[in-house]
Write a structure and sequence with these properties.
The complex is a heterodimer.
Chain A: H1 2-16, H2 20-26, H3 30-40, H4 46-56, H5 72-76, H6 78-81, H7 88-97, H8 100-105, H9 117-121, H10 128-141, E1 144-146, H11 147-159, H12 167-175, H13 186-195, H14 198-204, E2 206-208
Parallel strand pairs in A: 1-2
Chain B: E1 9-12, H1 16-20, H2 22-35, E2 39-40, H3 57-74, E3 77-80, H4 83-98, H5 100-111, E4 123-125, H6 126-134, H7 136-141, E5 151-155, H8 177-183, E6 188-189, H9 209-224, E7 229-232, H10 235-243, H11 245-252, E8 260-262, H12 263-270, H13 288-295
Helix pairs in contact in B: 2-12, 3-4, 4-5, 6-8, 9-11
The chains are: A mainly alpha, B alpha/beta.
């Protein structure tokens, strides 16, 4: 037995030997190491803590702190399989740390497809899709609303529908004897957008791609 | 008096169906009439609220609650064809019934328009109404032309399944309701890999690659087991499987040529309606071979 072990060791050494040059490159100088460390170290400020507690108050994000980072959400996420940067576990960690700027400015918070697989699978009963939605809501309040959502919201305000249904479609309904489409009361919608504070958000947030 | 157990329904059409999936509505209305399902119109409904939940949860709650109040006034339960609408209205209905704090907040919004949420109705997706209120026996009794030489794959879609604590009428890990509804038409349901997986449609406005790959993967799995068609109950999933299929074929470099039928079209064919009566022509992926199989 010991003999086999020995021979294995030598084999490994031999394998590594030709890669000597690579190894040298992979070992950064002490100063570089220090710099790399400084980049990854997070200094948590009272502001970070405030953000975390603000987020926890949003419906859907209440159980944020229960996340123990098992990663079931990411493992089961269909979007994560086809995208290298969307990782719900990571977003939850960033949210728990309260690193507001990094998490709100991250484009990945807009990639959740709300399939709710993570919600059903989370062993801690954290409503992960709810946390994502809470983060998006806050990002929008801070002025960053993706263009397609701005269009959807404007269409609802102008027509009661999320899409502007073309005249040709409405005419075709008449031809096929379908009942007239419901017409949302635009005055009601306008009042509801005002009282919920959404009108103001729509006015102040510029659509971005 | 609560009408929760009554079978009077008011139809919630939503936005996506009149915008681009009218075949779903046309076929659903045919099927309802044949089954004697009383469905009323509501001329004042607005968007369910779901599309703007990512940007304002409060505005979503307000829009959804207004729709619920309108149905309450009518004393009728809501039947929605779109799982996005059904899921949203169902979730908000449940939350407002159970959470006093949220109800108070929402009623404060509703006061502006002279409404109040009372919690007297129920919201169901078409699939749930067909399975629970109409029942498989009644559906089977209405079949005139069993589709016994048809093998299909189902795609229930996410919002009729999850989150289970709000939707909860089917098993999200092993969905059976749509399968049973398909079997009632005489067709065979094939099992395939990752049946309950999302098609990706909700993020198509943000990113096209992910939904394209997800739906492409699902179509590949369906093709592998020999499915002749995919059956959906959602206008967004249907858009991915039907309208976007030619694009997906180009991107993933595979030929699927897989017709995607709304469940109500499949059921309608089995009930003996003609393809014209079910607006089969509106499908983007050619279904003529499929119709030929049915007619042999």
């Amino acid at each position: 037995m010991p003999q086999t072990k020995k021979s294995m060791k030598t084999e490994v050494k031999e394998e590594i030997k030709p890669k000597g040059e690579v190894r040298e490159v992979m070992q950064p100088k002490v100063t570089e190491q220090k710099e790399a460390c400084q980049k990854t170290v997070l200094r948590i400020t009272p502001e970070n803590a405030r953000f975390k507690y603000e987020l926890k108050k949003v419906p859907g994000a209440e159980k944020l702190m229960l996340c123990f980072q098992c990663g079931t959400c990411t493992a089961d996420c269909p979007v994560s399989r086809y995208n290298d940067s969307y990782r719900p576990r990571k977003i939850l960690r960033m949210a728990q740390l309260g690193i507001k700027d990094q998490v709100l400015k991250s484009d990945t918070i807009w990639l959740c497809a709300a399939c709710f697989t993570c919600v059903d699978h989370c062993p801690q009963d954290v409503e992960i899709a709810g946390v994502l939605r809470a983060l998006r809501n806050i990002a929008v309040k801070e002025g960053a609303m993706p263009l397609n959502f701005k269009e959807l919201a404007s269409a609802i305000m102008e027509t009661g529908y999320a899409y502007k249904i073309p005249e040709s479609r409405i005419k075709k309904r008449e031809e096929t004897a379908l009942p007239t489409l419901p017409k949302g009361n635009l005055e009601d919608i306008s009042k509801l957008f005002k009282v919920t504070g959404f009108s103001r958000i729509l006015e102040t947030s510029g659509g971005s791609n | 008096m609560t009408r929760e157990k009554g079978n009077k329904y008011v139809l919630f059409l939503g936005c996506a169906i009149p915008y681009r999936e009218s075949a779903y509505e046309i076929s659903a209305r045919q099927v309802f009439r044949r089954l004697g399902l009383e469905v009323e119109e509501m001329p004042e409904f607005n968007c369910c609220g779901n599309p703007i939940d990512p940007v304002s949860h409060e505005a979503m709650l307000a829009l959804a609650a207004r729709n619920l109040c309108l149905a309450e006034r009518r004393g009728a339960n809501i039947i929605a064809l779109c799982p996005g609408c059904a899921g949203t209205l169902r979730k908000v209905n449940k939350t407002l019934k159970e959470d006093e704090k949220v109800r108070e907040e929402v009623n404060h919004f509703l006061k502006e328009i002279g409404m109040e949420f009372k919690g007297t109705i129920d919201v169901k997706h078409l699939m749930q109404v067909l399975a629970e209120d109409v029942g498989l026996d009644k559906i089977k009794a209405a079949i005139k032309k069993p589709l016994s030489n048809l093998c299909v794959a189902e795609h229930s879609g996410c919002h009729v399944l999850r989150p289970i604590k709000y939707i909860g009428f089917d098993d999200p890990e092993n969905p059976q309701v749509l399968k049973n509804l398909i079997r009632a038409t005489g067709a065979r349901v094939l099992e395939y890999q990752d049946e309950a997986q999302c098609c990706g449609a909700p993020i198509i406005g943000i990113n096209q690659d992910i939904p394209t790959n997800l739906t492409g993967e699902k179509l590949s799995h369906m093709k592998e087991v020999g499915a002749q068609a995919v059956i959906t109950v959602c206008p967004f999933c249907h858009m991915m499987f039907d309208t976007n299929q030619p694009r997906i074929e180009r991107v993933v470099n595979k030929k699927f040529e897989m017709p995607a039928l709304h469940y109500t079209q499949l059921l309608g064919l089995a009930m003996g309606f003609s393809p014209e009566e079910l607006a089969i022509k509106e499908l983007r992926v050619d279904a003529s071979k499929l119709l030929a199989v049915i007619n042999t």
